[in-house]
Every structure is written in structure tokens, then in C-alpha cells.
């Protein structure tokens, strides 16, 4: 399955082949490493895996030596290969939130900001966090960023930021932060060195997923002083910059988790062909064989949806509606795939003996982060109404 689909460019095929070989051969054996817990792999394990990726020449493979990026279609192929293990994106430095933060900094950051904040992330020497979502109990921003309560006030040549954030992936242990807050001009983004005494991790949440180092934290920001030259872009333009980051980032999630589900389906297929019940292999029972057939259909449809949306982004479109459609279609399709893999494997499918159980959990979370299915459908419905009104 990993070799089918829209043909990648020659350079993407070469990079992707090296990434796939590394993830299958070097990273996959670490899936039983004890340096993983409910909040993700430890920083020690991350550093070890990245060291091996650096030696193999596959670290940050979607960014070329001259700092340019693969295009979105090429990135789709390479990130899919990195996702063949839940540890793969962390190992080769294509994981969220770093991949999205690298993209944003590359698009919006000044030369000095890139040197100071972007380059260490690209080199795999620093992890980053994106501070946007706020706690529901505060009435702050979630799927509706306009509800943002975190404030930014100019004081001389510094901005003073106050607020609380929630579900901040990788905040524990990150060295670079991108903090969203609201000034008198509107939404803003700030680059900060971490840790900072003004930013306190209140707690790391216990969540269903466990693939991202540092987990997902609730964070308090109290009188954080940020030099004015560490504002990312312009005051009041934060929501525009968020869209620059979020549309490709939604698609990147789809790419990585497609790889994970391809691998889960391989494991389930091998199990169904090896395991016997009622006098024949499980694959020969229609109830099982049909599930695996449906998996191939959903995997192919997910792959084609990703390729279509990547093409839209490569053509220069903002791609908000297209990435929403891809996020919904792919996350829902991969949820079906992961569920059938568990079902095919029966009791074994809900144990940690293979990655199938983890992939199921991760995909369930994927249906929510970067916008749940219902929010994207609501956004698309608004676009349908707007387009019809403009067409009259």
C-alpha cells in the first residue's frame, strides 16, 4: 500500500524511500521502549531517535539544505512515510506542533527570528509549542479563536502578556514558544524562549493520545515581558498568520496519520492471514475479509483527498475550505480503518502488543484537534451560503 497512489516527484520518491527504510528498520523497534508514557516519549528518547535520524540523513526531510521546502504534494509523500510508526514523525522531525511552527516561521519570521527561533527547530535541537487554545472554564478561545482572552499590552519596548492556555502540545520541555494574545489592534503572535518563569505549566492533561512529547498542558501566563522585536509579523494580524499555519497543518496531520493507518492495516492483514478460526484463516471469513477490503478503499480515498488538497495549496490558494474538507474526510476515514484493524485482531487489537491499539487512540484524538469534524462542516456550510448569495 505504501508504494501506491499518485506518483511522487523523483526527489520526493528518493527522500521518502530513505525515510520509510529508516522508520521501518530503525524507529519501529523503539515502539516497545520503556521511555514512553501516557504523556508521550521522553526527551531522552526523542534525542536518541533524532541522533540516529541525523546520522541516517533523514532529519527534517521536508526542508532542504538551502532552507526551501518540498511542495505540499512532495511533503505529503514524505510525511506519510514518516508516519509509518507513531514515533516516526518525532524521530525525523516532521511531527506536530514543530512541523507547523517551522512552516509559519519560515513564512512570517524575520531573518533574525529565523536564525534565533527557527534554525534550532529545523536542526532538531529544540522542540516548540503553539499557545492558542484557552481553557473552556475561562470562556476562552477554542474552535472560535475570536473568543481569545489572553491580553498583550505595550509597555515601552516590551509587550506584557497575561492569560491562560489549554491543550498546549509539547509545552512541557519546549524551548521555543509561539504565544497568541489580543492587543488593542487585534490578535498578535509572540516568539518566546522557554522555559520562562512567567509561563507556568499548571498540569499536563491525561488524554487518550500519547504520541507527542510533553503531552498537552494547561498553562498560566503572568506578566510575560516580550521584547517588541519578538512579535511575529504585525500587531493585529495574528488570525491571518494562524490561517497560514493551520491550513497546511491540518493536511500534515492527515499525511502522518495516513502512514500510521497503512501500517496498522498491514499488521491487521498479516494477523488475519495467519490466525485461524473455524477451520480456515480469518481472511477467508467474509466478515473479516470485507473489513480489510473496506480499509483499502478508505485508505485510497484518504490518499487521493490529501493529494487533491495538496495540489490546491501548491497552486497558491489559501486552501481553508479544501483543508477543512480533507480534515473531515481523512480523519473520519482513518477512524474507520483503525477501528476495523482493532476489530479484525480481536483481543490482540486492544493490547499494547502491536501499535494498532495506539493508532486507534491517536486517530480518535485526531478527529478533534485542529478543529473537530462538526466545526469544519459548519465552516463549509457558511461558505456554501456565502457562495450562493454572491452568485445571485
Automatic annotation (TrEMBL):
SUPFAM superfamilies hit by this protein: Acyl-CoA dehydrogenase C-terminal domain-like (SSF47203), Acyl-CoA dehydrogenase NM domain-like (SSF56645)
Protein name (database record): Acyl-CoA dehydrogenase family protein
One Pfam entry name: Acyl-CoA_dh_1
Acyl-CoA dehydrogenase/oxidase C-terminal domain: residues covered: 236-383
Cofactor(s) needed by this chain: FAD
Species of provenance: Sphingomonas aurea
Domain Acyl-CoA oxidase/dehydrogenase middle: 129-206
Record-linked PANTHER family: ACYL-COA DEHYDROGENASE FAMILY MEMBER 11, MEDIUM-CHAIN SPECIFIC ACYL-COA DEHYDROGENASE, MITOCHONDRIAL-RELATED
Subunit structure: Homodimer.
InterPro entries tied to this protein: Acyl-CoA_dehydrogenase, Acyl-CoA_Oxase/DH_mid-dom, Acyl-CoA_Oxase/DH_mid-dom_sf, AcylCo_DH-like_C, AcylCo_DH/oxidase_C, AcylCoA_DH/ox_N, AcylCoA_DH/ox_N_sf, AcylCoA_DH/oxidase_NM_dom_sf
Signal peptide boundaries: none
Keyword presence, Flavoprotein: yes
Domain Acyl-CoA dehydrogenase/oxidase N-terminal: 14-125
Family statement: Belongs to the acyl-CoA dehydrogenase family.
Keyword field: FAD, Flavoprotein, Oxidoreductase
Transmembrane helix is among the record's keywords: no
